[in-house]
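Severity: low
Component: inverse-folding endpoint
Summary: output formatting inconsistent between runs
Steps to reproduce: submit the following structure tokens with default settings.
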């Protein structure tokens, strides 16, 4: 049975089977708030509410999020270097 997916922007995608839908979910390509329905059904269900899709999944990291964490780590290292710089042994 084929499944329809609808994202927040209203874009729709059809996948051939529940296994393909589950694979999208596992790889983080299907968000909790995306809506899903069987192709023959009229009712949409949130992906997070589908028991057939429960289980571990990877989380996609947005590049902006990764850069923010990297920048924060560099800023913290620089601040520590300034605080400890010029003092032998950090004292």
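Observed output (run 2 of 3):
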């Amino acid at each position: 049975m084929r499944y329809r997916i609808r994202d927040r922007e209203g874009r729709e995608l059809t996948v051939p089977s529940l296994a393909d839908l589950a694979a999208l979910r596992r790889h983080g390509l299907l968000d909790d708030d995306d809506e899903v329905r069987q192709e023959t059904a009229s009712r949409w269900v949130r992906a997070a509410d589908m028991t057939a899709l429960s289980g571990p999944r990877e989380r996609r990291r947005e590049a902006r999020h990764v850069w923010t964490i990297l920048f924060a780590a560099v800023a913290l290292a620089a601040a520590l270097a300034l605080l400890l710089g010029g003092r032998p042994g950090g004292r």
